[in-house]
Specification:
With 198 residues, the protein is α+β, with helices and mostly antiparallel strands. The protein has one domain. The protein is built from eight helices and five strands, in the order αβαααβαααββαβ. It has a five-stranded mixed beta sheet with strand order 1-2-5-3-4, sandwiched between helices. The longest helix has 18 residues.
Length: 198
Protein backbone atom coordinates (compact mmCIF):
# COMPACT_ATOMS: atom_id res chain seq x y z
CA UNK A 1 0.00 0.00 0.00
CA UNK A 2 1.24 3.48 -0.88
CA UNK A 3 2.17 5.73 1.97
CA UNK A 4 2.95 9.44 2.07
CA UNK A 5 6.67 8.80 1.73
CA UNK A 6 6.21 6.83 -1.51
CA UNK A 7 4.01 9.56 -2.95
CA UNK A 8 6.62 12.14 -1.98
CA UNK A 9 9.37 10.09 -3.67
CA UNK A 10 7.36 9.84 -6.89
CA UNK A 11 7.07 13.64 -7.01
CA UNK A 12 10.66 14.32 -5.97
CA UNK A 13 12.33 14.48 -9.37
CA UNK A 14 12.26 16.10 -12.77
CA UNK A 15 13.47 14.61 -16.05
CA UNK A 16 15.99 16.00 -18.49
CA UNK A 17 16.07 14.19 -21.84
CA UNK A 18 18.69 14.34 -24.60
CA UNK A 19 18.88 12.45 -27.90
CA UNK A 20 21.62 11.93 -30.45
CA UNK A 21 21.72 10.00 -33.72
CA UNK A 22 24.96 8.83 -35.29
CA UNK A 23 26.31 6.19 -37.61
CA UNK A 24 26.89 2.85 -35.91
CA UNK A 25 30.35 2.55 -37.44
CA UNK A 26 31.44 5.81 -35.75
CA UNK A 27 29.94 4.71 -32.43
CA UNK A 28 31.53 1.27 -32.69
CA UNK A 29 34.98 2.65 -33.46
CA UNK A 30 34.96 5.24 -30.67
CA UNK A 31 32.65 3.97 -27.93
CA UNK A 32 32.69 0.16 -27.95
CA UNK A 33 35.17 -1.97 -26.02
CA UNK A 34 33.74 -5.39 -25.18
CA UNK A 35 36.80 -6.49 -23.20
CA UNK A 36 36.43 -3.50 -20.91
CA UNK A 37 32.68 -3.83 -20.40
CA UNK A 38 32.93 -7.57 -19.74
CA UNK A 39 35.13 -6.82 -16.72
CA UNK A 40 32.33 -4.67 -15.30
CA UNK A 41 29.69 -7.25 -16.22
CA UNK A 42 31.59 -9.94 -14.29
CA UNK A 43 30.89 -8.01 -11.08
CA UNK A 44 27.12 -8.29 -11.64
CA UNK A 45 25.17 -11.25 -10.23
CA UNK A 46 23.45 -11.66 -13.64
CA UNK A 47 26.73 -12.45 -15.40
CA UNK A 48 26.29 -15.79 -17.16
CA UNK A 49 22.72 -16.09 -15.87
CA UNK A 50 20.82 -14.08 -18.47
CA UNK A 51 20.64 -14.62 -22.24
CA UNK A 52 21.27 -10.95 -22.94
CA UNK A 53 24.31 -10.73 -20.66
CA UNK A 54 27.88 -11.94 -21.25
CA UNK A 55 29.50 -14.30 -21.79
CA UNK A 56 28.03 -14.84 -25.26
CA UNK A 57 28.42 -17.78 -27.64
CA UNK A 58 28.00 -15.54 -30.69
CA UNK A 59 30.28 -12.76 -31.95
CA UNK A 60 28.83 -9.61 -30.42
CA UNK A 61 30.50 -7.37 -32.99
CA UNK A 62 27.94 -8.78 -35.46
CA UNK A 63 25.22 -6.82 -33.65
CA UNK A 64 27.03 -3.58 -34.37
CA UNK A 65 27.91 -4.49 -37.96
CA UNK A 66 24.31 -5.36 -38.82
CA UNK A 67 23.02 -1.79 -38.42
CA UNK A 68 23.72 1.63 -39.94
CA UNK A 69 22.47 4.07 -37.31
CA UNK A 70 22.09 4.36 -33.57
CA UNK A 71 19.69 6.65 -31.73
CA UNK A 72 20.97 7.30 -28.22
CA UNK A 73 18.57 8.53 -25.55
CA UNK A 74 19.89 9.90 -22.27
CA UNK A 75 17.56 10.55 -19.34
CA UNK A 76 18.67 12.31 -16.21
CA UNK A 77 16.43 12.17 -13.17
CA UNK A 78 17.12 15.28 -11.08
CA UNK A 79 16.14 14.77 -7.45
CA UNK A 80 15.06 17.60 -5.20
CA UNK A 81 16.63 18.25 -1.80
CA UNK A 82 14.01 16.19 0.05
CA UNK A 83 15.79 13.19 -1.49
CA UNK A 84 19.41 14.35 -1.67
CA UNK A 85 19.49 15.50 1.96
CA UNK A 86 18.02 12.29 3.36
CA UNK A 87 19.90 9.18 4.48
CA UNK A 88 18.31 6.00 3.09
CA UNK A 89 18.51 2.37 4.17
CA UNK A 90 19.25 -0.26 1.51
CA UNK A 91 15.56 -1.17 1.46
CA UNK A 92 14.56 2.47 1.02
CA UNK A 93 17.08 2.91 -1.82
CA UNK A 94 15.53 -0.11 -3.56
CA UNK A 95 12.07 1.43 -3.15
CA UNK A 96 13.26 4.80 -4.43
CA UNK A 97 14.90 3.22 -7.48
CA UNK A 98 11.73 1.26 -8.32
CA UNK A 99 9.53 4.33 -7.97
CA UNK A 100 11.80 6.61 -9.98
CA UNK A 101 14.65 5.23 -12.11
CA UNK A 102 13.15 1.82 -12.96
CA UNK A 103 9.75 3.41 -13.53
CA UNK A 104 11.26 5.84 -16.05
CA UNK A 105 13.22 3.00 -17.66
CA UNK A 106 9.95 1.09 -18.20
CA UNK A 107 8.25 4.16 -19.69
CA UNK A 108 11.17 4.78 -22.06
CA UNK A 109 11.22 1.12 -23.12
CA UNK A 110 7.50 1.28 -23.87
CA UNK A 111 8.03 4.46 -25.89
CA UNK A 112 10.93 2.96 -27.87
CA UNK A 113 8.98 -0.24 -28.51
CA UNK A 114 6.01 1.76 -29.79
CA UNK A 115 8.32 3.86 -31.99
CA UNK A 116 9.97 0.80 -33.55
CA UNK A 117 6.64 -0.89 -34.26
CA UNK A 118 5.03 2.13 -35.90
CA UNK A 119 7.89 3.25 -38.13
CA UNK A 120 9.14 1.28 -41.15
CA UNK A 121 12.56 2.88 -40.71
CA UNK A 122 12.94 0.73 -37.60
CA UNK A 123 12.06 -2.64 -39.16
CA UNK A 124 14.51 -5.22 -37.81
CA UNK A 125 15.81 -2.70 -35.29
CA UNK A 126 17.26 -3.59 -31.90
CA UNK A 127 16.40 -1.71 -28.71
CA UNK A 128 19.30 -1.28 -26.30
CA UNK A 129 18.17 -1.06 -22.71
CA UNK A 130 20.08 -0.48 -19.51
CA UNK A 131 21.03 -3.10 -16.95
CA UNK A 132 19.91 -6.67 -17.52
CA UNK A 133 16.87 -8.00 -19.39
CA UNK A 134 13.98 -8.47 -16.99
CA UNK A 135 11.21 -9.61 -19.34
CA UNK A 136 11.00 -12.85 -17.34
CA UNK A 137 11.11 -13.16 -13.55
CA UNK A 138 13.81 -15.84 -13.91
CA UNK A 139 15.85 -16.25 -17.09
CA UNK A 140 15.81 -19.71 -18.69
CA UNK A 141 19.59 -19.56 -19.13
CA UNK A 142 19.96 -20.65 -15.51
CA UNK A 143 18.42 -24.02 -16.50
CA UNK A 144 20.28 -24.10 -19.83
CA UNK A 145 16.98 -23.70 -21.70
CA UNK A 146 16.40 -21.48 -24.78
CA UNK A 147 15.25 -17.90 -24.33
CA UNK A 148 11.44 -17.66 -24.14
CA UNK A 149 11.38 -14.43 -26.16
CA UNK A 150 14.46 -14.40 -28.40
CA UNK A 151 13.12 -11.58 -30.59
CA UNK A 152 12.24 -9.40 -27.61
CA UNK A 153 15.11 -9.97 -25.20
CA UNK A 154 16.78 -6.76 -24.14
CA UNK A 155 20.49 -6.22 -24.42
CA UNK A 156 21.95 -3.26 -22.62
CA UNK A 157 24.39 -0.94 -24.35
CA UNK A 158 27.14 -2.07 -21.98
CA UNK A 159 26.41 -5.80 -22.35
CA UNK A 160 27.41 -5.62 -26.01
CA UNK A 161 30.44 -3.43 -25.37
CA UNK A 162 29.13 0.15 -25.31
CA UNK A 163 31.11 2.42 -23.00
CA UNK A 164 28.29 4.20 -21.21
CA UNK A 165 30.37 6.64 -19.16
CA UNK A 166 32.43 7.66 -22.18
CA UNK A 167 29.24 8.01 -24.23
CA UNK A 168 27.50 10.24 -21.69
CA UNK A 169 30.57 12.41 -21.15
CA UNK A 170 31.78 12.81 -24.73
CA UNK A 171 28.53 12.77 -26.70
CA UNK A 172 26.21 14.46 -24.19
CA UNK A 173 28.66 16.36 -21.97
CA UNK A 174 27.03 14.73 -18.94
CA UNK A 175 28.80 12.96 -16.09
CA UNK A 176 27.34 9.89 -14.42
CA UNK A 177 26.83 10.05 -10.66
CA UNK A 178 26.42 7.06 -8.37
CA UNK A 179 24.49 6.27 -5.22
CA UNK A 180 26.69 6.17 -2.12
CA UNK A 181 25.45 2.86 -0.72
CA UNK A 182 27.64 3.05 2.41
CA UNK A 183 26.26 6.44 3.42
CA UNK A 184 22.76 5.86 2.03
CA UNK A 185 22.97 9.03 -0.04
CA UNK A 186 21.32 9.71 -3.40
CA UNK A 187 23.14 12.14 -5.73
CA UNK A 188 21.37 15.15 -7.21
CA UNK A 189 20.75 13.12 -10.38
CA UNK A 190 20.89 9.59 -11.79
CA UNK A 191 21.28 8.73 -15.46
CA UNK A 192 19.79 6.23 -17.91
CA UNK A 193 21.27 5.64 -21.37
CA UNK A 194 19.32 3.61 -23.89
CA UNK A 195 19.19 3.38 -27.65
CA UNK A 196 17.96 1.86 -30.89
CA UNK A 197 20.16 0.21 -33.49
CA UNK A 198 18.59 0.37 -36.96
Amino acid sequence: MYNNRMLRIEKSYTIEKHEKTMQVQDYYENFVDLEKTIQSCKKCDKYGKCWSCPPFNEDISDYWKKYENIDLILLQLHYDNTITEEIFSQEDIDTLLHLTLFNEKTKLLQSLTKKTRKNEEFDDSMILSTGYCNLCPVCTKIDNQPCRYPKNKLYSIESIGGLVTKTTEELFDKKIKWIDMEKGKIPDYLTLLMGILY
